[in-house]
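Translate structure to sequence.
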């Protein structure tokens, strides 16, 4: 409505368990404070863009199966004899309760000449607010700020890690996005051609991607795309790009689909044929470690754009 401040047109709900934002266009995002997990992202038509298991826990008893879980400070099972060794798979960010720090809105000129509104929601987690059990597993002083920005046709998630300790620490970060798709057999992932990757379903062999990625069975790979973070990685369905992911300071991309057997073995994965409707394309820094010196900060982000 002309004359009204922009803020009045973004609807924010902050409950005890989650934060929801709705833009005037009808686009929306929902973030669970548990894990700061994005559990829903809908487009203007109300169509859900993320896959969320029907059997996932949302009560804080287990990491969310679906949406965008945040992996920090270790990806996968932690290595032995490392500072992260005592942590569970994928670390503690996705299983900790975060604090909602607030929102900010901004306006930009839309392609049609009007104004596009976007809203940024900030979440925080620090060593001071970490539960004592987790602190005993990884004792560094740190601060995390996670920002989720909903725009017209896009979603940006960005993480800033600050080392508040007197010692350096090693970290890995991953934005574990579960994209909702219609049919995995009609999907390809483009933008990884020529990239070296670690094939986790083939004895961690190092391979080179020759063409677009196709899915014919369980897929679990860690790519380092040749074009760097700013070259888009696209999810193509039936020949049409449905999602495009651009990264900032995150050099790696994990591509994961559990397929039928692994899906059947996961108690929180439903429906069992749901693997046909999801693909994880995960922006991260996971092939090796980032060492963060005392007082230093690491920032990594992804922007997902939808087409159509
Ligand atoms: C992916 C890993 O990122 O996450 C897979 O590459 C893993 O190996 C998958 O199976 C799911 O992990 P989790 O801990 O959520 O079951």
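Result:
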């Amino acid at each position: 409505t002309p004359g009204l401040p922009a803020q009045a047109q973004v609807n924010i709900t902050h409950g005890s368990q989650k934060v929801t934002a709705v833009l005037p266009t009808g686009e929306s995002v929902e973030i669970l404070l548990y894990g700061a997990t994005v559990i829903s992202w809908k487009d203007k038509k109300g169509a859900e863009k993320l896959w969320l298991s029907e059997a996932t826990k949302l009560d804080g008893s287990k990491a969310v199966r679906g949406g965008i879980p945040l992996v920090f400070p270790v990806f996968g099972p932690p290595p032995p004899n490392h500072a992260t060794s005592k942590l569970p798979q994928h670390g503690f960010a996705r299983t900790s309760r975060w604090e909602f720090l607030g929102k900010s809105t901004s306006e930009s000129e839309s392609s049609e000449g009007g104004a596009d509104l976007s809203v940024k929601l900030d979440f925080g987690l620090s060593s001071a607010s970490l539960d004592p059990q987790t602190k005993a597993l990884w004792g560094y002083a740190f601060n995390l700020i996670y920002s989720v920005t909903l725009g017209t046709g896009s979603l940006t998630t960005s993480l800033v890690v600050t080392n508040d300790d007197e010692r350096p620490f090693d970290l890995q970060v991953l934005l574990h996005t579960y994209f909702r798709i219609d049919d995995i057999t009609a999907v390809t992932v483009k933008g990884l051609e020529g990239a070296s990757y670690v094939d986790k379903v083939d004895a961690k062999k190092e391979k080179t991607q020759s063409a677009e990625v196709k899915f014919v069975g369980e897929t679990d790979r860690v790519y380092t795309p040749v074009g760097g973070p700013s070259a888009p990685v696209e999810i193509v369905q039936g020949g049409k790009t449905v999602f495009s992911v651009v990264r900032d300071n995150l050099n790696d991309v994990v591509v994961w689909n559990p397929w039928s057997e692994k899906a059947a073995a996961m108690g929180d994965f439903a429906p069992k044929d749901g693997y046909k409707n999801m693909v994880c394309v995960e922006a991260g820094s996971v092939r090796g470690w980032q060492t963060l010196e005392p007082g230093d900060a690491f920032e990594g982000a992804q922007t997902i754009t939808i087409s159509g």
